[in-house]
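Lecture notes, part 5. Sequence design as translation. It can be helpful to think of inverse folding as translation between two languages: the language of shapes and the language of residues. The source text, in structure tokens, appears below.
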């Protein structure tokens, strides 16, 4: 039987998967919020966003120190999420020319959550491999 102490001993010293899991789940929630407020990209959210949120939450559920593939996928998904939402944020800023815009703020916040997940995913991968 696998006890708590056995799991703790098998967990890499620099494992940040729990943080990454929370960040990815939070990013999924932010994408759902953006679908409500972001009229410019409504078709994106209808076609891609709903499926992406489901995949993101599914992935967050699989993140564990035993699933090395999940940690690699966390890094990939977080990187793509950051690139997309930072691009969307910059695009919005260029069109409204202010940082005091709800859609810009939510896009930028989503990008920030994803880049933070990239950082902790990379630290975990460095430790494991």
């Amino acid at each position: 039987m696998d006890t708590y102490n056995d799991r703790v001993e098998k967990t890499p010293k620099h494992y940040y998967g729990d943080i990454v899991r929370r960040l990815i789940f939070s990013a999924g929630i932010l994408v759902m919020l953006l679908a409500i407020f972001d009229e410019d990209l409504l078709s994106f959210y209808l076609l891609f966003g709903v499926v992406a949120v489901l995949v993101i939450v599914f992935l967050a559920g699989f993140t564990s120190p035993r699933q090395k593939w999940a940690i690699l996928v966390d890094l990939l998904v977080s990187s793509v999420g950051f690139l997309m939402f930072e691009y969307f944020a910059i695009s919005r800023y260029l069109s409204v020319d202010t940082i005091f815009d709800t859609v810009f703020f939510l896009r930028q916040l989503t990008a920030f959550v994803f880049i933070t997940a990239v950082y902790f995913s990379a630290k975990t991968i460095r430790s494991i491999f």
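The translated text above is only one of many valid answers, since several sequences can fold into similar shapes. Helices lie at 4-10, 17-37, 42-62, 68-96, 102-128.
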